[in-house]
UniProtKB/TrEMBL annotation:
InterPro entries (UniProt xref): Gryzun, TPC11, TPR-like_helical_dom_sf
Domain Gryzun putative trafficking through Golgi: 659-1195
Protein name stated in the entry: Trafficking protein particle complex subunit 11 domain-containing protein
Domain of life: Eukaryota
Leader sequence segment: none
Domain annotation Trafficking protein particle complex subunit: ranges: 367-623
Length: 1249
C-alpha cells in the first residue's frame, strides 16, 4: 500500500485484549508497611520440597509473580476457560500504588463546554484532531484502564512489636471473645481505608475487592472475629469482594488466584458492557448518513475538515468490537468489526460510489494511511475470528474480498500492479493470514479436506486475486484460491508476492535512473533485503509442507529458494540447493524435473564462472534419459563443444583435472570392460575389450574424445588411446583391435604408458569395441581399475570416470560377451563366455631384475648446450645378459619440444629425440658397461628428469621373459642469459593535410638488456638480431631503422650486463583494416663455456611483437623545441580522427598564467573519418621555467560511444612499456596519457642581444 504499510502494523491493533485487573499492596514499594513472619520449625521439618509453605515475604512475591506472569493472551488462550472448567478466565494484571486514581479529563478553564478525551477528534490536542478515525493510543490507554481493582492488605498483629501488650477486653456486643484495644484500633483504620477505596472505585463503575494477607497458616477464633468485624465495617461481601490468603504451597496460591479470577470476571465483563452501552447511546445520536449532504473536498484550502458521520460510526463500531473482544464475546465482536470494516472500506473507495455524507480521504494523506492500516488490521481480526469459529470458508472469503478491494482500488491510489507497494501489501496480507492459520492449527484447529468443499453448495466464495475465479464444482474440480489450505500455501503466496515486489522495485529503480536517489520511497525500499524476506517465507512454507508430508512440494520449494538466490545474484547458494534437490530427482527418476534443475544449475555455473559444474551439467543433459527435443539436445552438445574448444583460458595456472563420475549421473555413453581369461602367465598376452555403447538418440552430433585411458593396478600397463582425428564410416557395431599397435610413451605426462591411436569418434545408437592386450612381466594381481574418457579444453582436462566391477542397482549381471571379427565385409558378432558380469582381474607371475644402474655428471646444466651424462650398468646376474637401455628426458614441469638426447656431440639434428634406445650388447656376469649420453635442454629452465629403463634377457633362457629395471635422476637446467626489454612509442609530428589519410607510421625504440646467469664464465662470439622472415601482411610492415650493438669475442662473468638499442618503424597503408601484431625477430647469441673445447652453442632470445596503438581520437600538441621569454611562438593542436566514424566535438582552451595567447577560445565542429583539424594559437610567454601550456580541452562524441574528453599527446613523447624475459608487461610501468591533466613546456630566459 503506502510507505507506512511496508513496516509492521501497530501491535496494539493486532493483540487480543482481555479484562484488565489492577492490584496494589504486593509491589516492593508497598511492602515497607508489611511485617515479616519467620517460618516455623514444624513447617520446615514436615513439608516436602515441592510444596514448601511460604511465609509472608515469600507469599507476597509469589502472589505477585503468579498474578503478573502472563500479560498477553492469544485468542485461543483467552477463550480456553469457556470449554474447560479447570482453566480460569483471563486477566491482564497491572500493578498500581495504593493511592492510585483514574486519569481525569482536563477541563477548559475558559469554557463551560463538555470536555472530551485527549484522544477524541473533538479535542484540539488529540492526535486524531479533527478528522482522524482511530489511534493505537486509544487501545493502549484501555490496556492500562482497570475493569476491576484488588487491594492487598496486611492484618496487623503483635509479633514484631517491642512494647508491652495490652490486656484484652470484652467486646461491645459482650461476646465470648476478648478484644485487644490496639488490634481494634488498627482494624478500624484498615476498614476505613478499604471503605474509602471501595467508594471511590464504585463511583467510577469499577468493582473493588480486598484481600487480607494473614501471617499464620491456621487462624483461631480471634482472627475470625477480627476479619468479620473488618468486613462489616468496609461493606464488602465475603463471597465476591472480601478474601483472605495465608501462607501455603504454590499449588494452594495458584488455586487462590484461580478463584479470584473467576469471582472478578463477571464484574469485569459488566464493566465493559456498561462501556458498550455508552458507546451505543452515542452512536444512536448520530444522524443518518443519507440526511447529511455530501461533503466536497477543497484541496486549495489548508483548513482541515471535521470527521464525517461515517467516520464517527466507524469509530463507535470499532470501540464496541474492542470491548466485546475484551468480554470474549467473539460472535458479537465479529459483527462489530465487520460493520467497522465495511465503513472504512467505503471511506477508502471512490467518493462517486459512496453514500451521502461520506468524506473522501485524500490519497496518501496521513489520515488515508491511518485508515489503510486500520482496514488491514480489522481484516486480520475478522479472519482470525472466523477461523476460531471454525468457518474456514468465511475466513478465506474475507481475505480474498479484502485483497480484491485493494486490487480494484490500487490503480486509483497510484499503487497499481506495476509498483512494489502493491506487491508488498499482498505479501504482508498473505503472510499474516498464514500466521493466523498456523496459530489456529497449533491450538487444535483442523484444516478441512478439499472434498468437503466439493460437497458444499456454496459457490460464491471469492478466489484469491492471484488465481482465476473459477467457481467450485464437483465436476470441474475447485480453485485452490477458494479453498483454505495449510499455512505453507499462503507462505508460498507471500513469497511469490515478495519476489514480484523486488522485481517491480528494480524496474522502477532502473526507470528512475539518476533520480532514484531523490525518491524517498525508492530509498526506503532499497534498504529492504528482499531476498532474505523471500527466502524466509519460502523456508516457512517448506517447513509447513514438510510437516504435512508433502515431499514433492518441499523439493519444489527448495527449487524456489534456489531460484530466489539466483535472481538476487547469490549463485553459489542457488547451485547448492539445486545440487541437493537434484540428487533426489535423479535417484527417483524424475527426469523431466531433473532436466529443469540441470538447466538452472547450468545458468548459475555460467554466472559463477564455474566451468567444472557447467560441463558436468551439459554432459548429463546429453543423456536420452532426460526428456528434451532433439534440436535442444543438439544445442546442448554444441554448447559443450564450444566450451571445450572456443572458450578462452581463464587462468594460466594449471588446474587439476575435472573428474565426472558417470555412475552418479545419467550417462549418454555406457562403458564396460572384459578380460578374456581370468588366468594368465608372465610373458603371455592378456587380451581385454572396452565396450562403448551410446544412447539411442544421443549424441545428436558426432562426438569425439581426445583420448581413452585404461588404468591398471600396475601403472606400467596403463594404456592411453589417442584419437586419430580422422572421420571414418559410421558402423552400428565396430571392432577396433590395437593389440599389435601399442607403443610405450617415452616423455610427457604419460611417460611409460602404452600408447596407440584409433578412431574415438562416436555417434548415436552405436557400439564400439576396443580390443587390446598387454604382456605382463611380473607376478601378482593384474587388475583394470578404471576407464577414463578424456576431453581437453582451454580450461583443463575433463575425465569421464567409469567405475569397474560395479553393477547397477537392482539389475542382474548379464552373461559375459566377447566381440569377434567375422569374415571380411561381415558384421562382427558377440561370443558368449563363461561367467556373468565384468571380468577385470587376472593372476600373473614374474621375476625381479638383477642389474645395478649408476650415474656420473656435473650439475647444473645450461640450456642450449650438450650436457654429458655417464651411465654405468653392472650385471649382477649369475649369467651373461643381452641388454638394451631406454633413455628419456622429461621436464619436471611438462613437455618441452627442444629437449632431446644425443649419443654424440656431432650427431645429426634429425636424430634428436627425447628418447633413445641404446643397444648394450652382451654383458658378462659381474661386468660393468659405461655409456655416455648428451642431454640438451631448450627454452625452459627447470629440472629435467632423466628416466632410464634397462631391459634385458638372460642368455640361455626364454627370450620372451624380458626383465627390466628403471632408474631416474633429476638434473637442474638453468638459462645462461636473462633478458629484459623496454619499448617506447614516439609520437610523430602530423602533417596539416585535411584530406583522408589511410596511412600511418609509428616509431618504436627497443632497448634490450642481457644478463649472464651462468655459474661458469662464458665466451661470447657474437650477438646479432635476426628479422622474422615468416611474417607477411598486405598493409602492415616493420622495418629496422637503426641499431646500436657492438661486441667482440669477450668473456662474460656471472652478472655481466650487455645493452643494445634498436629503432623500428611500424607502417600501415590502410588504417581501416585490423592491425596485426608484428614480430620484431629475435636475438642470436653464439657462445660456449670458457676454457672448454666444446662446440659453439646458440641461444635465441625472442623480441617482443609490435602493434599499432589503438586507433582512437587524439589531440596532438605541436610545441616548438625552444621557447624564449618575451618571444611569441605558435602552438598547434591537431585533432586527429583515425577511426571510421565522424566525430562531433566541442573544444575550449584552458587558460594559463604563464602565457597570453590569441586564437579561438571555444570551437565546435566535426572531424571526418581518417582526417584531422588544426588549430593554431599564438602564445606570448610571461614566465620562464617549466610552466603549464594553454591546453585545448576537446569533448567529442562518436557513434559507438558517448561524450568523453579526448587525451592530448605531445610530439616527441610516448608511452613506455617494460617487459620481462617472458615478454609479459610488468605492473605499474605503463603511463596512461589520459591521466595527464596538464601540458608543460620549458620557457628559456630572454635571449641575449
Amino acid at each position: 500500500m503506502c510507505s507506512t504499510n511496508m513496516h509492521s502494523y501497530p501491535l496494539d491493533y493486532l493483540l487480543h485484549p482481555v479484562p484488565v485487573m489492577a492490584i496494589y499492596g504486593l509491589s516492593p514499594s508497598d511492602e515497607s508497611s508489611l511485617l515479616d513472619a519467620p517460618i516455623s520449625e514444624e513447617t520446615n521439618s514436615q513439608s516436602p520440597k515441592p510444596s514448601v509453605t511460604l511465609t509472608k515475604p515469600n507469599l507476597t512475591c509469589s502472589l505477585l509473580e503468579l498474578l503478573t506472569s502472563k500479560t498477553e493472551y492469544t485468542l485461543y488462550e483467552a477463550t480456553a476457560y469457556l470449554s474447560n472448567q479447570q482453566i480460569p478466565p483471563p486477566f491482564r494484571v497491572i500493578t498500581v500504588s495504593k493511592d492510585y486514581v483514574l486519569p481525569q479529563r482536563q477541563s477548559s478553564a475558559t469554557s463551560s463546554l463538555t470536555t472530551h478525551s485527549n484522544l477524541s477528534p473533538l479535542s484540539p490536542d488529540s492526535p486524531v484532531y479533527p478528522d482522524g478515525i482511530m489511534t493505537p493510543l486509544w487501545i493502549k490507554r484501555h490496556l492500562y484502564h482497570p475493569s476491576v481493582v484488588v487491594g492487598f492488605y496486611e492484618l496487623w498483629d503483635w509479633q514484631n512489636e517491642t512494647g508491652e501488650r495490652a490486656k484484652r477486653e470484652t467486646g461491645p456486643l459482650a461476646s465470648q471473645i476478648l478484644i485487644d484495644p490496639t488490634e481494634r484500633e488498627y482494624d478500624m483504620n484498615l476498614a476505613n481505608e478499604i471503605n474509602m477505596r471501595r467508594k471511590y472505585f464504585q463511583d467510577k463503575g469499577i468493582k473493588f475487592a480486598a484481600v487480607l494477607i494473614l501471617k499464620q497458616r491456621h487462624i483461631d477464633s480471634s482472627i475470625e472475629e477480627r476479619l468479620s468485624s473488618i468486613r462489616k465495617q468496609c461493606g464488602l461481601d465475603y463471597k465476591s469482594s472480601f478474601f483472605t490468603v495465608s501462607p501455603g504451597t504454590m499449588n494452594e496460591l495458584q488455586d487462590f488466584v484461580n478463584i479470584l479470577y473467576r469471582v472478578m470476571y463477571e464484574p469485569a465483563a459488566q464493566f465493559y458492557s456498561n462501556r458498550i452501552k455508552k458507546i451505543r447511546k452515542k452512536k444512536a445520536k448520530l444522524p443518518s448518513p443519507s440526511t447529511v449532504p455530501k461533503a466536497t473536498l477543497d484541496f486549495s484550502s489548508n483548513e482541515k475538515q471535521p470527521l464525517s458521520v461515517t467516520g464517527w460510526s466507524l469509530r463507535y463500531d470499532f470501540k464496541t468490537a474492542f470491548f466485546q473482544e475484551c468480554k470474549q464475546e467473539i460472535d458479537s465482536s465479529l459483527k462489530s468489526y465487520e460493520a467497522a470494516y465495511h465503513s472504512i472500506v467505503d471511506l477508502l473507495t471512490s467518493s462517486s460510489s459512496s453514500p451521502f455524507g461520506h468524506h473522501q480521504l485524500p490519497v496518501n494523506s496521513k489520515r488515508w494511511q491511518e485508515a489503510q492500516t486500520l482496514a488491514d488490521c480489522i481484516n486480520i481480526k475478522i479472519c482470525k475470528f472466523y477461523l476460531y469459529l471454525n468457518d474456514s470458508t468465511a475466513a478465506l472469503a474475507q481475505l480474498n474480498g479484502h485483497l480484491h478491494m485493494f486490487q480494484s482500488c490500487a490503480p486509483s491510489w497510484g499503487i497499481g500492479e506495476q509498483t512494489f507497494e502493491y506487491w508488498a501489501s499482498l505479501s504482508k496480507q498473505y503472510r499474516m493470514f498464514a500466521d493466523l492459520i498456523d496459530a489456529a492449527v497449533q491450538a487444535g484447529y483442523k484444516i478441512p479436506l478439499p472434498t468437503e468443499y466439493l460437497l458444499s453448495s456454496n459457490g460464491n466464495v471469492p478466489g484469491s486475486p492471484l488465481f482465476s475465479n473459477t467457481t467450485i464444482s464437483s465436476t470441474t474440480g475447485c480453485n485452490p484460491g477458494s479453498i483454505l489450505q495449510h499455512p505453507g500455501f499462503y507462505y508460498h503466496l507471500a513469497a511469490m508476492c515478495c519476489a514480484e515486489r523486488r522485481r517491480r522495485f528494480l524496474e522502477l529503480e532502473r526507470a528512475a535512473g539518476g533520480n532514484a536517489e531523490k525518491d524517498n520511497s525508492l530509498l526506503a525500499e532499497k534498504l529492504v533485503d528482499h531476498s532474505s524476506l523471500t527466502i524466509e517465507l519460502l523456508t516457512k512454507s517448506y517447513e509447513q509442507f514438510k510437516r504435512y508430508r508433502n515431499g514433492r512440494m518441499t523439493l519444489y520449494l527448495a527449487a524456489e529458494i534456489a531460484g530466489t538466490y539466483y535472481e538476487t545474484g547469490k549463485y553459489d547458494m542457488a547451485i547448492k540447493f539445486f545440487e541437493r534437490i537434484g540428487k533426489t530427482y535423479r535417484k527417483e527418476k524424475w527426469n523431466m524435473v531433473l532436466t529443469s534443475i540441470l538447466r538452472w544449475s547450468l545458468r548459475c555455473a555460467k554466472e559463477l564462472g564455474a566451468w567444472e559444474k557447467a560441463i558436468e551439467c551439459l554432459i548429463e543433459l546429453m543423456s536420452d534419459e532426460l526428456p528434451m527435443a532433439e534440436n535442444k539436445r543438439a544445442d546442448i552438445q554444441r554448447e559443450l563443444m564450444d566450451m571445450l574448444s572456443k572458450h578462452p583460458e581463464s587462468s594460466v595456472t594449471e588446474r587439476s583435472p575435472l573428474v565426472i563420475h558417470m555412475d552418479q549421473i545419467n550417462p549418454f555413453l555406457h562403458c564396460h570392460v572384459q578380460l578374456k581369461s581370468p588366468t594368465n602367465f608372465v610373458g603371455s598376452k592378456v587380451s581385454y575389450q572396452i565396450v562403448l555403447q551410446t544412447n539411442r538418440s544421443s549424441p545428436q552430433i558426432p562426438f569425439r574424445f581426445n583420448s581413452l585411458r585404461i588404468l591398471f593396478n600396475n601403472p606400467q600397463y596403463n594404456t592411453i588411446i589417442k584419437d586419430l582425428g580422422i572421420e571414418t564410416d559410421v558402423k552400428s557395431t565396430e571392432l577396433i583391435d590395437f593389440s599389435n599397435d601399442l607403443k610405450r610413451i617415452e616423455e610427457g605426462d604419460h611417460s611409460g604408458w602404452l600408447n596407440t591411436q584409433c578412431d574415438l569418434g562416436i555417434t548415436k545408437d552405436q557400439i564400439k569395441v576396443l580390443q587390446g592386450c598387454i604382456v605382463p612381466e611380473k607376478c601378482g594381481e593384474l587388475k583394470i581399475t578404471g576407464i577414463m574418457l578424456d576431453l581437453m579444453s582451454s580450461h583443463g582436462q575433463i575425465e569421464l570416470n567409469y567405475p569397474i566391477g560395479q553393477l547397477p542397482e537392482q539389475q542382474p549381471a548379464a552373461r559375459r560377451k566377447w566381440l569377434e571379427a567375422s569374415d571380411e565385409g561381415k558384421k562382427p558378432v558377440f561370443k558368449i563366455l563363461d561367467g556373468r558380469g565384468e571380468l577385470s582381474i587376472a593372476n600373473i607371475m614374474q621375476k625381479p631384475p638383477s642389474i645395478d644402474i649408476e650415474f656420473d655428471y656435473n650439475a647444473p646444466a645450461l640450456l642450449d648446450e650438450l650436457f654429458a651424462l655417464d651411465v654405468k650398468i653392472k650385471n649382477t646376474e649369475t649369467e651373461s645378459i643381452t641388454a638394451t637401455l631406454y633413455t628419456e628426458i622429461k621436464n619436471a614441469e611438462g613437455i618441452v619440444d627442444d629437449d632431446y638426447i644425443a649419443l654424440s656431440s656431432g650427431e645429426d639434428a634429425k636424430d634428436h629425440v627425447a628418447a633413445k634406445d641404446i643397444e648394450l650388447g652382451t654383458i658378462g656376469s659381474g661386468q660393468t658397461v659405461t655409456k655416455t649420453i648428451f642431454l640438451h635442454g631448450g627454452s625452459i629452465s627447470g629440472s629435467r628428469i632423466i628416466n632410464l629403463n634397462a631391459k634385458y634377457t638372460v642368455i640361455g633362457r626364454n627370450f620372451s621373459e624380458v626383465v627390466e629395471k628403471s632408474e631416474s635422476v633429476r638434473i637442474p637446467f638453468i638459462a645462461p642469459f636473462d633478458a629484459s626489454f623496454e619499448l617506447c612509442s614516439i609520437t610523430e609530428r602530423l602533417e596539416r593535410s585535411i584530406g583522408i589519410d589511410l596511412e600511418k607510421s609509428e616509431k618504436w625504440l627497443l632497448t634490450a638488456s642481457f644478463r649472464c646467469f651462468s655459474a661458469w664464465d662464458l665466451e661470447i662470439k657474437s650477438i646479432a638480431i635476426e628479422e622474422d622472415k615468416t611474417f607477411s601482411h598486405p598493409y602492415t610492415s616493420l622495418s629496422l631503422i637503426s641499431k646500436i650493438e657492438d661486441v667482440d669475442i669477450t668473456i662474460w662473468k656471472t652478472g655481466h650486463i650487455y645493452n643494445a638499442n634498436y629503432l623500428f618503424k611500424l607502417h600501415t597503408t590502410d588504417l581501416t583494416e585490423a592491425q596485426p601484431s608484428v614480430p620484431a625477430g629475435h636475438i642470436v647469441i653464439t657462445w660456449k663455456r670458457s676454457g672448454v673445447d666444446n662446440e659453439l652453442c646458440k641461444s635465441l632470445i625472442s623480441l617482443p611483437s609490435l602493434q599499432l596503438q589503438q586507433q582512437n581520437l587524439v589531440v596532438v600538441s605541436d610545441v616548438p623545441d625552444e621557447i624564449y621569454l618575451g618571444e611569441p611562438f605558435t602552438l598547434s593542436y591537431i585533432i586527429y580522427n583515425p577511426t571510421e566514424h565522424i566525430a562531433d566535438y566541442t573544444a575550449s582552451i584552458e587558460l594559463s598564467e604563464a602565457f597570453v595567447f590569441s586564437g579561438y577560445k571555444q570551437v565546435k565542429g566535426q572531424v571526418l573519418p581518417l582526417s584531422r583539424t588544426v588549430y593554431d594559437y599564438t602564445c606570448y610567454p610571461l614566465l620562464s621555467g617549466k610552466v603549464k601550456l594553454p591546453k585545448l580541452k576537446v569533448i567529442a562524441m562518436q557513434q559507438q560511444s558517448g561524450e568523453k574528453e579526448i587525451p592530448v599527446e605531445m610530439v616527441g613523447t610516448g608511452v613506455t612499456f617494460t617487459l620481462g624475459n617472458d615478454l609479459q608487461a610488468r605492473q605499474n610501468n605503463v603511463m596512461d596519457p589520459q591521466q595527464q591533466q596538464f601540458i608543460f613546456a620549458f620557457v628559456r630566459a630572454k635571449r641575449k642581444l
